[in-house]
User: Fold LLM class F420-dependent oxidoreductase from Amycolatopsis halotolerans.
Amino acid sequence: MAIELGKLGVWRMSTQLDGAFAAELEKLGYGTVWLGGSPGGDLAIVDELLAATERIKVATGIVNIWADEPESAARAFRRIEDKYPGRFLLGVGAGHREHTQEYKKPYAALVEYLDALDAAGVPKESRALAALGPKVLELARDRTAAAHPYLTTPEHTQAAREILGSGALLAPEQKVVFDTDPERARETGRKTVQFYLGLSNYTANLRKHGFSEEDIAGKGSDRLIDALAVHGDGKALAKGLRAHLDAGADHVSVQSLDDDPFPAYRAIAAELL
Assistant:
């Protein structure tokens, strides 16, 4: 049985999380906290978040396979699973070609990493895979409990669901800005999104799903920013998240780009949870 993530979760850099943050999310009804920023080492932050809460799940989004050996990830998984059974999802991925010197043949490396997790006793139903393209989505379907696409649109979600079938949970990430001023909201969204426009795996995926070279050029067109960082009031943010659910997502991981993320989380919870 795959882990139950709930309808909505929150994606946030692991360095910006603590137990009080997770406890507040749990009170609002969010099902999962996703640890961003390639959290490494022994994943001690996971213990802190789970100790401070009763029901919420914690997932890594993602452990970078080039930065942490599978044996290390497996040891952390076993420790956490022993203390908090059924509340941790080990998400792994290959990161970005531009930022990893050792980035070679990522698909083969992912397969080898999953093989090592198998050997170390990390079960399929307790792991997820960062997946954008068809081949890695198929790998997520066959070898993990969940696919975790990042920086995508409902159009990608629909295509991903067709590939996954019923074989894995689909848990895309969606950025939001809780601001009804379009220009100001786009400025906030663009500060984060423009970083990813220099990474080939994301730009190739965006081209496949309806965006032009003009959309992707420079700091990104308004159309692109509006899609990747949904902005507006609570109803508008909920509509953007619901579009992923309607397209076939089982769960949406929400990343608020606001300085204080909780107004957005509260407004979304009031609409969807």
